[in-house]
Design brief:
Shape of chain B: globular
Number of strands of chain B: 11
Strand content of chain A: over 45%
Strand content of chain B: over 45%
Distance between the termini of chain B: 37 Å
Structural class of chain A: mainly beta
Structural class of chain B: mainly beta
Shape of chain A: globular
Helix content of chain A: under 10%
Oligomer: heterodimer
Low-confidence stretches of chain A: none
Low-confidence stretches of chain B: none
Strand order of the largest sheet of chain A: 1-9-8-3-4
Mean pLDDT of chain B: 93
Chain lengths: 112, 114
Amino acid sequence: LAKTTQPISMDSYEGQEVNITCSHNNIATNDYITWYQQFPSQGPRFIIQGYKTKVTNEVASLFIPADRKSSTLSLPRVSLSDTAVYYCLVGEGNTGFQKLVFGTGTRLLVSP
Amino acid sequence: EAGVTQFPSHSVIEKGQTVTLRCDPISGHDNLYWYRRVMGKEIKFLLHFVKESKQDESGMPNNRFLAERTGGTYSTLKVQPAELEDSGVYFCASSQEQGYYEQYFGPGTRLTVT
């Protein structure tokens, strides 16, 4: 399993763009990169998944460089409600390997 | 569409007692997972069902934990007898697709063993 490293915490203000970088130096060829978000007293919630280059949805963008040894989750114009823990996960897709391996995550605090 | 539901939301029991947690996955989801976070630690995988069969139970900590999914619908996780170190939040998740796709998590059951 590819181990991930991400900052323990980040602070931001409303309206700013937040970029959270995750390092996964041992990522395997078949691995996908997935980000989950967790609010207090809730279960984790899927945000975005990608394999290479850039993926964008209505919530975030995910940037993956060519070597895939890191990835960056970008949250545009954050609001107070984006305060949460963000987890970067790496795992094999398409072949039935299914258990999610969570790290410590990045605790994002958005202030007014 | 209803999400993943878990019952109870909070359980407080004494050491040595038995507790059963229940998870109702999203309708039609064949895959059901249990995870837990004990105090100060990361969320850890416990086991995975595909329909009523245990696909992977490598994360189950010991034989005091028993998970079932009769009929391939809801699942129960029984802890018997409970120990202090079992305290934590137990999450259930379900998914429709095979592979490393989106898993939908429930709100969790907070278990406190005193």
